[in-house]
Each structure stands twice: as C-alpha cells, then as structure tokens.
Design brief:
By secondary structure, this protein is an alpha/beta fold. The protein contains six helices and eight strands, in the order βαββαβαβαβαββα. Strands 1, 2, 3, 4, 5, 6, 7 and 8 form an eight-stranded mixed β-sheet that branches. Helix 1 crosses helix 2 and helix 4 packs parallel to helix 5. It starts with a strand and ends in a 29-residue tail after the last helix.
C-alpha cells in the first residue's frame, strides 16, 4: 500500500483540495479552538478527490472541534453522518458543512450513493471530498463500519486519516493512505497512524478493526 505526503501544513490546504469561505463559522471556529487549547498536526495530500475518516468519536465535543477545524481550514467537504446527529445545535453545523443524514441500516445504499458521486465528480473533472465517521456511534463497538473502505477502493481515491486527539489536544490529518483493497492490511496501516491518539472518553473508543465475518448457514450433512 502507498501513503501520500502532506502538501501543506494545516490549517492551510493544498491547491487541489476543495475549499470555500465560512465568513461566520471560520472566526467562531478559530475562537473555539483557541479557547479549548487545540493545535494542528499534519496536512492533506494534494488530491482533489478523497475520503476523510475521523477518529475517535466518543462525545459530542468531537463534532464541535472537528467542524470548527474544518471551518478554519475552509475545507469544502460533504459529510455522511447518522440521522441522530442532525439535531440542534450540532445538526445546524453539520448542514452548514454539506452534511447528509444517512440510515445506517442501509449501508449498501450509502456506499452506492457515495461511489456514484465520486464517479460524477471525476467525469466532470471536479473535486469531491467525503467525510465519514467509521465508528458510527459515540459508544464503544467491537469494530468499525467499513463502508468508507469500500467507497475508497471502488472510487479509486485515497483515505485521509484525521485524528481528534483529546490527550494532546491536537487535530489534523495524520496520514493519507492509498488503499490496497486488502481490508485487514489497510486497517493495520490506519491503526499505525492513529497509535497514541485518545478520545475524550477513551473507554468509548471503537478500535480500528473489521467486523467478524458473519457465519453462513450450516451445510447439511451428506
């Protein structure tokens, strides 16, 4: 597998990464990050189309910090998140950033929609950045939801790994991975990039690993 180097240090964005102005949210986000004592780490690769995953997701503060950082950067991304997150006040911020509520019980449909959107952007020569929280919930689960990986592989785009490190109060892109198609190998590489990162509530962190395969129906004895 391949990793792509950062082309600019955050909060600056490389020229290929889509950006927009947030006249109100940007100064507010800068104030929030300053008051909370957060610092930047890493940066985006100079790629116009990519999937962004953020980890860990253990509290509502993740959305406040993450969206504040996106506003300061001027990142123009679409965000897929579960419907429950679109309640005020986080919901207002999500919609301002192009948030799309999704039904997690229909995972295949979400993947198809995302891949189609990437294909449309590529055909038009346009940038497109999609943000996904692979844990799917603030509570601890045994494994990540892996739709983000299927999207990146099928759309042939890299995965930008964003860390929200409450232990060191750092946020940023700690690595950009070109997926190999081997889920276990790619998750291993993501784990390496996220080593040492801690959420606000570490006991709620869902580790970067794939779900156990579902057993099929038993084969009748001959």
């Amino acid at each position: 597998m391949t990793t792509l180097p950062p082309a600019a240090s955050l909060p600056a964005l490389p020229p290929s990464v889509p950006s927009k102005r947030y006249p109100i949210a940007a100064p507010l986000g800068r104030l929030i990050l300053w008051l909370l004592g957060w610092k930047w780490v890493g940066g985006f690769a100079d790629v116009p189309r990519q999937v962004i995953i953020g980890w860990p997701h253990t509290s509502n503060w993740d959305g406040i910090v993450g969206l504040s950082a996106a506003a300061v950067c001027g990142l123009d991304a679409r965000i897929f998140a579960k419907r429950q997150l679109f309640r005020p006040p986080i919901g207002w911020m999500l919609r301002a950033f192009g948030g799309t509520p999704i039904d997690r019980t229909k995972g295949g449909g979400v993947v198809e929609r995302a891949v189609e959107r990437f294909e449309q952007a590529e055909a038009a020569g346009e940038p497109f950045v999609l943000g996904i929280a692979p844990e799917g919930t603030r509570g601890r689960r045994e494994a990540w939801k892996t739709g983000f990986h299927r999207i990146a592989v099928r759309a042939n785009v890299p995965i930008a790994i964003v860390a929200l490190d409450f232990g060191r109060k750092q946020i940023g892109v700690v690595g950009t991975l070109v997926p190999s198609g081997d889920l276990e190998a790619d998750l291993g590489a993501i784990r390496q990039q996220l080593a040492g990162v801690r959420g606000k509530h570490p006991e709620n962190e869902t580790p970067p690993r794939a779900p156990e395969p579902t057993a099929g129906p038993a084969t009748p004895a001959a």
